[in-house]
Amino acid sequence: MTTSLIPTLHLTRVYELLIDTYGEPKNVPDYDALGGLVGTILSQHTSDINSGRAYKQLISTFPSWEEVRDAPTDKVADAIRSGGLANVKAPRIQDVLQTLTEQMQASSYQGTIGQYLYDELVQRTPEEGWRYLRRLPGVGPKTAACVLMFDLDLPVMPIDTHVHRTSIRLGLIGARVSADKAHELFAKVVPAEWVYPLHVNLITHGRRVCHAQRPDCTNCSLYKECAYVGSVNAQETAITG
Questions:
Q1: What is the pLDDT of residues 33-52, one digit of tens each?
Q2: Nearest to residue 143, comparing CAs of 36, 241, 225?
Q3: Exactly one of 26, 75, 142, 224 is catalytic; which is it?
Q4: Which one, of 127, 99, 125, lies nearest residue 113 by Cα?
Q5: Catalytic: 142?
Q6: Model confidence at 144, in pLDDT bands (50, 70, 90)?
Q7: What are the structural domain ranges in the chain?
Q8: 129 burial class (0-12, 13-18, 19+ CB within 10 angstroms)?
Q9: Does domain 9-26+158-237 have CATH number 2.102.10.10?
Q10: What is the distance between the alpha carbons of residues 26 and 29, in angstroms, rounded to a whole number?
């Protein structure tokens, strides 16, 4: 296998054990960056079922993102009500759309908002795209990474609560490393083709075994690679930089 970066020995062992345990998930990107961005905003603080329902209602009510941008905010909120926090998410979505529109106008771009965002992202490196998205109103590091990884199949790993917790417990990162810092550390050593499988499998491991409360350590396939139970020393295994 040709890799773009050289992973640490401990990361390699963890990655291989995760693959052996949970398989190697494959991403199926749709290359709809703006749809992915709006969908990720809708997914905040709610279930996938609720956010999916809200997204479908939004695009059935407003056939284009330009119509979402120009609609009364209360009408947008009504359309996404099933996703929760509609009065917060509606203006956030419209702020993103308005900001992108202003950028389009400043650059004399001819096309839709969705086409513009896609073109802006694919002409940048993954890290540059991540930083670009983070400059949009209300877009945090995890949201930006989700758009790039899930929708564009780019090697930028979102650090959600499961990934952060399991990475600390497995000794991949130090106990005091923040999610933002974890993003930077993983970007230095995780090969591009590992990013999606590692992200998905760490989430699966966190949900099935490495629970926030009372992790099921006795049934953990990564027990021998775990700093939480003392099998490895995080000071020796953690990614640094």
A1: 999 999 999 999 999 999 99
A2: 36
A3: 142
A4: 99
A5: yes
A6: very high
A7: 9-26+158-237, 33-152
A8: buried
A9: no
A10: 10
